[in-house]
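batch job 7 of whatever, protein = Chemotaxis protein methyltransferase
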Amino acid sequence: MTQAPLPPANLQFDLAREEFVQIAAMLRQETGISLANSKMDLVQGRLARRLRALGLGNFAQYLEIVTDPEAADERRQMVNALTTNLTGFFREAHHFDYLGDTILPEIARTRPAGSSRLRIWSAGCSSGEEPYSIAMTVCAKLPDWQCWDARVLATDIDTNMVATGRAGQYEASRAGTVPESYRKRFLLRLDSGTVQVAEVLRDLVAFRQLNLLGAWPMRGRFNVIFCRNVVIYFDKPTQRTLFDRFADILAPGGWLIVGHSETLFRLSDRFEALGRTIYRKTA
């Protein structure tokens, strides 16, 4: 059987309004992300790559595929294409300063006798720069961290981003925001113009695919949760539910760190604001 020729690389795919509405509804059901009507061009551009890869001629054909109950793999590809993955090492650097200068010393000072457990969750870790920034901070700022039972959990809904983070290789230009002392200690420059994250960090960080709206299989509580520039894509009821779940899984007095444009105001009464999008669990 002769395979149908792929469409020309420059073929433009027109996304009808009703097709956008259907795709937006699917994305919200799968991830909780709400797409405004202004995102129609973004959806058209990102999913056009999937249509070309599949040899399709229009979005109607694509919807036939992703609405098939047996098409879980392509729905995952759709989610990967439509989720935003803007990140960087030590982005919003004050959060890492606070982690290293305030949170970790307090945890070390007040830990129960015989306890050395430290758990930090990077929820919505994208390609991994955030959890590796957390891990660098732990290694540099927590005295005798090697003697601790310390782990950083890094989760994202995008399977491609999880794989990138787990590999721990990045273009060298992306390392410019890493403090110089950390670059020398934790990043190995490769001949290919990339940097490799040190093995000690890759051992400290565990990458997992996770949908924040689904079940959370983690056992035990976290001391700190980073969930930055993620909930901004959810509606208010979903944000309220998510913040409540974060409070449930945080240890007493644990910290929640959110993005620069996010707030818990009128969404949760279980945290106190410490300033600069840093919150502490109170209930």
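notes: The longest strand covers residues 250-258.
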